Amino acid sequence: MATIPTPEAGLVIAYSYLWRREHQAGQDEGLKDRPSVIVLAVERLEDGATIVTVLPITHTAPLKPGAAVELLAPVKRHLGLDDQRSWVVVEEGNEFIWPGYDLRKVPRKNRYDYGFLPPRLFDQIRNAFLALHPTGRTLTPRD
User: Fold this and answer.
1) What CA–CA distance (Å, rounded) separates 13 from 36?
2) What phi and psi, each to the nearest 5 degrees, are found at residue 12?
3) Fold category of 11-141 in CATH
4) Residue 99: is the preceding peptide bond cis (ω within 30°)?
5) Rounded CA gap, 117 and 113, in Å?
6) Short-list 51, 16, 55, 59, CA closest to 38
7) Strand 140-141 relative to strand 94-97: parallel, antiparallel, unpaired?
8) What is the pLDDT of residue 138?
9) Kind of pairing between the strands at 103-104 and 11-17
10) Which of 17, 26, 37, 56 is deepest in the core (most CB within 10 A)?
């Protein structure tokens, strides 16, 4: 039986990500499970629940400069991801109570995570996300 990991910034999890456009169209479930990076995990004081913010990893190149950060091949190999080009989207994210209903097992593995991003890359991703979302109000709620 797979153990659910502790949610930590920089951990890449398997997750059913709900894109903002899907949420705005009335969907409440992601169409595809995908690797997603935990960018923030905060314990809520009133009940001790952990609120997690994740950013999706996609093969689709960003249309706007600064909307995503590319994952280079050595990082993808370290995480066990495929060899196609991929980006971490920083212009949107999902927010949910950990572990939530949308946490998934990594395909062909008995675990929920792929591992951690290198710290310098995670810092670049977090800083790009925070620059676009200083208030966090553009996150898609998943609970």
Assistant:
1) 5
2) -100, 120
3) SH3 type barrels. (2.30.30)
4) yes
5) 11
6) 55
7) parallel
8) 67
9) antiparallel
10) 37
> For residue 47, how many C-alpha atoms fall within 13 Å in the half-sphere facing its CB?
5
CA distance 10 to 68: 15
- H or E stretch covering 47: none
Tokens of 21: 């456009």
The pLDDT tens digits of the residues spanning 77-99 come to: 999 999 999 999 999 999 999 99
pLDDT of 134 higher than 80: no
DSSP state letters, 107-131: TTSSSSEEEEPPHHHHHHHHHHHHH
In angstroms, rounded to a whole number, what is the distance separating the alpha carbons of residues 21 and 137? Answer: 15
Residue ranges of the domains in the chain?
11-141
Mean pLDDT in residue range 55-70: 95
